Amino acid sequence: MEYSYITPMFGLGMKKHHREADAMQDVYDVHGLDEVLLQGDSVVWLSYSNVDRVLVHRGGWAGRPKLTVYAADGTSYAFRLHGVDVVDELVADLEAVGEDHGFDVEAKSGVGFAPMENLRRLFG
Questions:
Q1: Burial 76-86, CB ≥16 within 10 A → b, else e
Q2: CA-based, 20 to 30 A from 91: which of 17, 53, 58, 79?
Q3: Longest C-alpha distance within the chain, in Å?
Q4: What whole-number distance in Å separates Cα of residue 64 and Cα of residue 47?
Q5: What confidence tens digit (pLDDT) does each residue in 48-61 have?
Q6: Are 44 and 53 in contact (CB under 8 A)?
């Protein structure tokens, strides 16, 4: 699910992404998952059989953890994780689901992007 307002680049220094993540958690706590889905700009549904693998980057000083779902058709969906303080528990939960439904889960250190490659893609 994508939200256009979660992490605007100009708001990173002011921790706006933390406030937005906390506000979305409040929406979930009060109204549940249906309202969270309604807040999204877009929602992608994948059945377990259409998930090839999941990659979790643990994050670091330069960025939040990142979760990427690779679909069987080759597309991928990547999301920064806000408000997830225990990445190891998330990975363990995803591994259990993956074992039950036939997809791999991998965890890596780092933030999951190459700044120079991103700049070349934007300005190249």
A1: eeeebbbeeee
A2: 17
A3: 45
A4: 26
A5: 999 999 999 988 77
A6: no
